[in-house]
Amino acid sequence: MLNTFIGNAGHLSVIVAFVAATVAAYSYYMAARGRALGDTDAAWLRLGRGAFLVHAVAVISVIVCLFGIIHGHRYEYYYAWSHSSNHLPVYYMISCFWEGQEGSFLLWIFWHVCLGLILMRASKRWEAPVMAIFAGVQLFLTSMILGVVLGELKIGSSPFILLRDFMPDLPVWKTNPNFVPADGTGLNALLQNYWMVIHPPTLFLGFALTLVPFAYAIAGLWKGEYTKWVRPAMRWTLWGGMILGVGVVMGAYWAYETLNFGGYWNWDPVENAVYIPWLVLVASLHGLVLWQRSRTALRTSFVLVIATFLLILYATFLTRSGVLGNASVHSFTDLGLSGQLIIYLAFFAVLSIALLISRWKKIPISEKELTTYNAELWVFVGATVLCLGAFQVLFTTSIPVYNAFLGFIGIKSNLALPADQIAHYTKFQLWMGVGVAFCSGLAQVMWWQKNDKSSLTNTLTVPAILALLGAALVILLVQYYGHKMELAYIVLLTTALFAVLANLSMVLTLIRRKVSLSGGGVAHIGIALMLLGVLASAGYSNIISQNVSGLLYSREFDQTTNQDNVLLWRNDAAPMGKYDVRYTGQFFDVPGVPGYVDKQLLFRTADEYKALARADIKRGDELYYKAGDTLEILPENTYYRVEYQDRKTKEKFVLYPRAQVNEQMGGLLASPDIKKFADHDIYSHISAVPPIDKEKDWSEVQEYVLSVGDTIVLNDYIAVFRGVEPAHQTAGLGLNKDDLAIQGDFLVYGEKKQYHVHPMFVVRNRLIGRVPDEVEDLGLRLSFLNVDTQQSKFTFGVSTTQKDYIILKAVEKPFINLLWSGTLLMALGFGMALYKRRRETEAPAVAAPATGVRPRPVQPKPRQVA
């Protein structure tokens, strides 16, 4: 039965949220119009506050309604049907919430509500102009989920649309207008990962935080307060830099754990769309620091803060307009919002750029000249390098946009994305890393001292020499292990080591001086470690699953796949690098049972999410299920148990790479499992498995007439027939009182272990049925064919098939932990900087880049930096 109440309530809440945002934006604008900063019209201000509070309540109501639809499995609504299913746990239902475009817009709106409520309390004199911008952005964002049709005009896409309204041509509506599907299509398999529960909220919070400094910058231009906006904007920029940066790396780690392209960054256009604004955001942070410290680069700060938010809007257009449909597997399809997205982007671009141009000459500039011995110059150079790196990625990523625009005006374009995007981007971004590493080390050293040729030489000599010695040692080790090191890699290695050592020397110096630690120094060490981790793990990944068998696995595979994978027959060891590797079977995830459960212990039922235990399921001494118990399973993924053993040390570890057959997503979906060591990871994923959706090719049945205690040879394995017993606990038969079910009891001796096999013989309503039992490890299937009660003889049929196998790829990724630990240090550095600034007021003061350092005199020499 249709439940339209919750959908109507949700849709009404969206309309209320849109109207309230409109009223709030206009009221705050009128409260600040024509008045100096801090002087507001009290009546309009009260109305603006009230309207935004109504907007906040309405947004919460929308969220509650949408999650209620998903959690309640209300598949009469298209959003729940297309993103959820009956068997998802609650934490994946949360992922369903933002899998769709409407849900992700709603998540973004929610974070803006939270930030707006904070600003209403904390922004003081800035409230009216800042919240006018804030509410204006909410107006546009809320319109994206409005779902209102006015004649030929559609405004937004509603998450509360009914399935019958979204897909009106289905024949079922003619016979049953109130039809509700029994189950949904489910959450994308690749999103069923814990990182997808926390990564999108983190990323969208980072997006939302870029609005705050943007709003302060626009308010500063609007009110003619060209300098006072910097201090409050600085704190929010720090928060944005930290959270958006962590969100980007969270996405990289999700890709590393979930996707099987062998890494964490594939330069996909959707990845780039997030990476670009983060680079510009970090550059804008350094611009703000320069103004606070030495009154330079204020114009640059305005430009970069505004550009960061506009790039967020541009990223939204890229990923949600459908323009990347053929260029990225991660982009959303077009829901008809392209026009709205363009209007959204154009409105704020025109508003901010026009305001910036009109006020440009009034923005203060420095009368000082910067020389080589000014730390400010190198901070400015570093920010420039970040922007150049962002522009390079932006230019290439936007090629589909150029083509779409030229096609729109009638010009045919042959522009195409680079064939090898990883090589293309890496070629340029590697040198950006060199520039960032060098500038971060040099500027941090210079920041804390008075600089001239002598003092700078004395300070830099030790870290420079140690960096060169460290680089030389690494180069020798790389060559010793048979690898070559390109010039670009050598330069990046040397500069990254210099950045680590230079920043570390200053942090240690501050400790000795009993000065508060520099958050900037710690963050720069983190960035340098990230660069070293990227260099080692991406530049020197080692494929250890080389095909040394001389076999061509399949003519359907390309040459690389045939060369870089190892074929593993079930229970047969194969050499792979320094390991002997053995594939030992297929496993399922059983909720409530630690680890995974062997598929051979489970009898599948008509309900694919339920199975019966064929034997006791234990972990140690704890019994989870007894033989014959019904249990729930998660059947989407099959986990393949792969055992690694070091040939020298005999140490073992086990990995469970997973895979599933999903024809809608191109066939086999494989996710890796990773063994983590201190200095490297072993990254393993399935490349191919026997066709899961096809019947196995069994041999002709060979019959055996046996007495209890007989021994036979089955497919080269010894089998003992131990007797016949009632099949009381047998799965899936649905036995009635008058039915007869017996099962044979065989003990088969495999290479590594013994197997109990129980083929069944059933008599129901004078009809005979047979339920064979299969030993996948050995490629055997036994059927109970007949019973001779007079002679106590039993007839069994035996079929054999090719043994189970997998084709596995394994890659050794050296020092990848430097990337993850560097991310944590970077976040810690941002956090330290925020902690130091927590008590700052709006009073003028001098501060340091991203760190909150003490004021110190500078050595001005004339060169203007805007």
Automatic annotation (TrEMBL):
<feature type="transmembrane region" description="Helical">
    <location>
        <begin position="522"/>
        <end position="540"/>
    </location>
</feature>
<feature type="transmembrane region" description="Helical">
    <location>
        <begin position="337"/>
        <end position="357"/>
    </location>
</feature>
<keyword id="KW-1133">Transmembrane helix</keyword>
<feature type="transmembrane region" description="Helical">
    <location>
        <begin position="275"/>
        <end position="291"/>
    </location>
</feature>
<feature type="transmembrane region" description="Helical">
    <location>
        <begin position="236"/>
        <end position="255"/>
    </location>
</feature>
<keyword id="KW-0472">Membrane</keyword>
<feature type="transmembrane region" description="Helical">
    <location>
        <begin position="487"/>
        <end position="510"/>
    </location>
</feature>
<dbReference type="Pfam" id="PF01578">
    <property type="entry name" value="Cytochrom_C_asm"/>
</dbReference>
<dbReference type="InterPro" id="IPR003567">
    <property type="entry name" value="Cyt_c_biogenesis"/>
</dbReference>
<keyword id="KW-0812">Transmembrane</keyword>
<dbReference type="GO" id="GO:0017004">
    <property type="term" value="P:cytochrome complex assembly"/>
</dbReference>
<feature type="transmembrane region" description="Helical">
    <location>
        <begin position="90"/>
        <end position="118"/>
    </location>
</feature>
<feature type="transmembrane region" description="Helical">
    <location>
        <begin position="428"/>
        <end position="448"/>
    </location>
</feature>
<keyword id="KW-0201">Cytochrome c-type biogenesis</keyword>
<dbReference type="InterPro" id="IPR002541">
    <property type="entry name" value="Cyt_c_assembly"/>
</dbReference>
<comment type="similarity">
    <text>Belongs to the CcmF/CycK/Ccl1/NrfE/CcsA family.</text>
</comment>
<dbReference type="GO" id="GO:0016020">
    <property type="term" value="C:membrane"/>
</dbReference>
<feature type="domain" description="Cytochrome c assembly protein">
    <location>
        <begin position="102"/>
        <end position="321"/>
    </location>
</feature>
<dbReference type="GO" id="GO:0020037">
    <property type="term" value="F:heme binding"/>
</dbReference>
<dbReference type="GO" id="GO:0015232">
    <property type="term" value="F:heme transmembrane transporter activity"/>
</dbReference>
<feature type="transmembrane region" description="Helical">
    <location>
        <begin position="52"/>
        <end position="70"/>
    </location>
</feature>
<feature type="transmembrane region" description="Helical">
    <location>
        <begin position="460"/>
        <end position="481"/>
    </location>
</feature>
<feature type="region of interest" description="Disordered">
    <location>
        <begin position="845"/>
        <end position="866"/>
    </location>
</feature>
<protein>
    <submittedName>
        <fullName>Cytochrome C biogenesis protein</fullName>
    </submittedName>
</protein>
<feature type="transmembrane region" description="Helical">
    <location>
        <begin position="130"/>
        <end position="150"/>
    </location>
</feature>
<feature type="transmembrane region" description="Helical">
    <location>
        <begin position="298"/>
        <end position="317"/>
    </location>
</feature>
<feature type="transmembrane region" description="Helical">
    <location>
        <begin position="203"/>
        <end position="224"/>
    </location>
</feature>
<feature type="transmembrane region" description="Helical">
    <location>
        <begin position="12"/>
        <end position="31"/>
    </location>
</feature>
<feature type="transmembrane region" description="Helical">
    <location>
        <begin position="815"/>
        <end position="835"/>
    </location>
</feature>
<feature type="transmembrane region" description="Helical">
    <location>
        <begin position="377"/>
        <end position="395"/>
    </location>
</feature>
